[in-house]
Amino acid sequence: MGFFGLSNESEAEIKKRKEIEERLLKEEEKREKEIAKKQAKEQYEKEIKAGNKISQLMLRDKLGEPVYYAEGIDASLWVYDDFIIIDRNKSKLFNAFNHTVKFIPYTSLTTLQFKNSGVLEANIEFGVAGYDAAIKKNTDLDNENLFSFEPREGRSNSAEIYFFILGKMRDINKKNFNDNKV
Question: I need a surface site. Which of 33, 45, 49, 141 has the fewest CB within 10 A?
């Protein structure tokens, strides 16, 4: 302490100390969010393995709000920062025997195909390691890695979603390339 109980710290030192404290607080909050997200993913995966149906409310409760959400012809698409979920519990008409919720981390994606043929059709097909759509596919409904957007309203952000996912894949490839370089 300085004279008459005043601090010897300069204004610059006080400002720097406060910036460090704020940065540490933000880092701690970020770590807590990452831990909560990881725990939610683990719980979600346990539920899926146990065969429990996942409702959309449960997805939001466990995983938070997605970066993008789209309604499709036969499914819902949930796009998060680290993974994608294709929820095929939406429609009984198209999916009478395919009530699934598929979790796809960006690290598992090998290819990404976007098709927008104008008025009638827009879809994104996710190439996933270990899944050969060409062998399994009798119809598009059999392809669990294909998401078809609703013909009108659902397509409004289809290209935006595609480029977001493509950017995530590019970032992972850059990181892997740089890790292998060292």
Answer: 49
